[in-house]
């Protein structure tokens, strides 16, 4: 191992960890004295976080749509910290923000590669380690898995698939606790993308509502849902496994303190 794991510290993998919700989750876990292995495509922010937290952070810059990286992530985490106690599957893409009639199967395939199949690849490699620790997985979902927004077809259906994958993982792996969480409308780069790129495909009224929520300061700071998610990957009870929750619903009151 390249670092020393403190007694009682757990080790968590956070994907999409260089900014936004993923970065907030990683920082919260670090403040709780855990080890965090970061995964994202760009390494500048992850390198800085490692420098600020020597001995408790390691990272891998990787494109998770390349399924071969999954094995490298698990191996590197175990090499750095000796184990895997939990994973937050936070990475994802919204594009294409395009109606079905104007999109292509190849665009949808790219979305599914990132939002669904990369999670399958990562879990396939992680399961043996998570069995050892009776670990936890939190999949970042979306309310659009249950509703519809014009031009969000690939994103919404991919999140619905991720929710079912979460349920299947719980059914097949009794020693692993897995939950799917919708974090709400968080002030991240994805919200910026909706405002800047969504006008052509989304209805005017729905697009305007996203712009208005930003302008009136109603988007959530990443730390709010991030804190709930960090606590869930740390200590979610078995009776939550396989289920989907909104980050702020009453069922998760114990994690919202």
Automatic annotation (TrEMBL):
PROSITE patterns: ADH_SHORT. Keywords: NADP, Oxidoreductase. It comes from the Eukaryota. GO terms for molecular function: oxidoreductase activity, acting on NAD(P)H, oxygen as acceptor. The keyword Oxidoreductase applies. Signal peptide: none annotated. Pfam families: adh_short. Belongs to the short-chain dehydrogenases/reductases (SDR) family. This is Short-chain dehydrogenase. It comes from Microdochium trichocladiopsis.
